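During the no-cost extension, the postdoctoral fellow (Dr. R.K.) reprocessed legacy sequence entries with the updated structure-token encoder. One reprocessed record is reproduced below for audit purposes.
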Amino acid sequence: MALKALDIYKLLPKKNCKECGDPTCLTFAMKLASGKGDIEKCPYLDDHAKSVLGASTKPPVRKIKIGVGERAFVVGEEFVQFRHEKTFYHPPGIMVSVSDTQTKPEIEQIVTNVRDYVLTRIGMDLRLNGIAIRNDSNNPEQFGTAVSYAEGCADLPVVLMAGTLAAAEAGLHECGNYRPIVHCATRENYREYCSLTKKSGAVLAIRAGTPDEMAELSTLCTEAGQDALLLDLSSRSLRQFINDSTIIRQHAITRTTPSLGYPVFYDATIPDNADAALVLGILKYGAVIVIGPPTRPSEKALLTLRQNIYTDPQKPIQMTAGLYRVGNPGKDAPVLMTVNFSLTYFTLQGYLESSRVSCYMLIVDTEGLSVLTAVAAGKLNETMVRDAIKKYGVENEVSHRTLIIPGYASPLSGRIEEETGWKVLVGPRDAAEIGEYLETEWKA
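Re-encoded structure tokens follow.
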């Protein structure tokens, strides 16, 4: 089991020397307990403490990097069974499959969509992650050619769903330097696959019938020198996937079976209901998920679902503070101040756009807190508003000196006027009323 901060603190030298970069040993212990610290930063740990802490503070699910360059992604490094306990850290990589029986234009069209499509949602750019090439031809040479088509079109992470060692070699000949996933090794051929992938630096997906057999196979692979592993739980039964993925996550995070502490690979195209399989893969611990080419609505839905599940529930989604334009505001346009809680921002922006009143939105950094919470917690005050006006050059954008603040920030109105020299108008509490408010109250 993972040690708590106080248990870790008991093993530390308690010198408070600050050589680790933290002010106290207790602060360092808290970092280690959360998985964000490095025991090597403490120069005074004895061998026993290093042994105990090394086993208990490293992530129970190993971190694996897929691909190279800007589109590379990381999976694993998870600490909890359920998202609400803390958070999930690394969203699953969603890989769109192509077949080596498809033509070059067909493969390039799918790859280009994965490369270019971006869904921007609440200030974040969401994308699919890569390509999975299937060896449906059972021809190593044809498989290698299909891999070259995909690689020639985009620098994306790939899964080589080779099926045979010869096809895997042909695929690695085309992309072996780019850290692909090679799928997959079994008990019968793991030695050959481990040797091949270790030599090229690729990640190896392994397949076994049960979690116990998977634990045994992963141990054999690590003994053979390959520890960049993914556990393939692909199954025609959705129920079996849920059972196995849950068991594996439980054994990993409790450190009951360390050999199961690897990210999960899931081919969501195998079950009859591929859409349900994809959703379950995202919800139930899939780290690399293979899907068929999605329709645009399905693509938006799965990217949205993944974002929702892998957003830290303890940390509000934030907008970047700054001055934003709605419409084409001129020198006499109103300036509305609000906070950088994303829901507040997008709600207000939507109503402003509906009102068809061109204006400015001055977004103040309140660490993602809502207006009411930020005012109550002291995260929104007159000094912050003054600094934001100066930092984002609001005075240069408008000819007036009038600021509209949210209704829930009304206790700050007088202090903001004194601090900024601007006239403050208190707007409505409900953003839905902002259009009517501007029509009746705003005068440049």
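The mean pLDDT is 92. Residues 64-309 form a domain with the TIM Barrel fold (CATH 3.20.20.20). The remaining legacy entries will be reprocessed before the final report is submitted.
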